[in-house]
Amino acid sequence: MAEIDVVLGDITEQRVDAIVNAANESLLGGGGVDGAIHRAAGPGLAEAGAAIAPCAPGDAKATPAFDLAPVRHVIHTVGPVWAGGGHGEADTLASCYRRALLVADELGADSIAFPAIATGVYGFPTAQAARIAVATVRATPTNATRITFVAFDEDTHAALTAALDG
Q1: Active-site residue flag, 110
Q2: What's this model's pTM, rounded to 2 decimal places?
Q3: What domains can be seen in the chain, in order of their start residue?
């Protein structure tokens, strides 16, 4: 079973084999976590993303990490846009975490860092997203030995910590 923890910080500064990008379907970069990862990785990330796009909500695809060394891979996943919760958003979000772990296993990643997928501009309520993230990661078989949830702000850190401790 993987060791799971929560940290407050910048996902681009994590020392892991793979980081997960909360991407948009084009995989060309955007705002929030997606923009930060693209800026840190350099222009090769957008070129690699364009070559494998589109990525459907709930799916995950990998590219090299380019300038994010020592990270070797960026796993792009597209979260659901919150539309009130009655449109399969929870299932799509859970699929993001499951698919990212599957891709990480295919890549041989021993350690992986996740952001709080879909809680930014996509509007998924943070506490609910945190519960789904933690429950899904715990329930998904993986070869990874270390999984880190990286929170960009205190509220997200508190929600992820509560979900992990709950």
Answers
A1: no
A2: 0.98
A3: 3-165 (3.40.220.10)
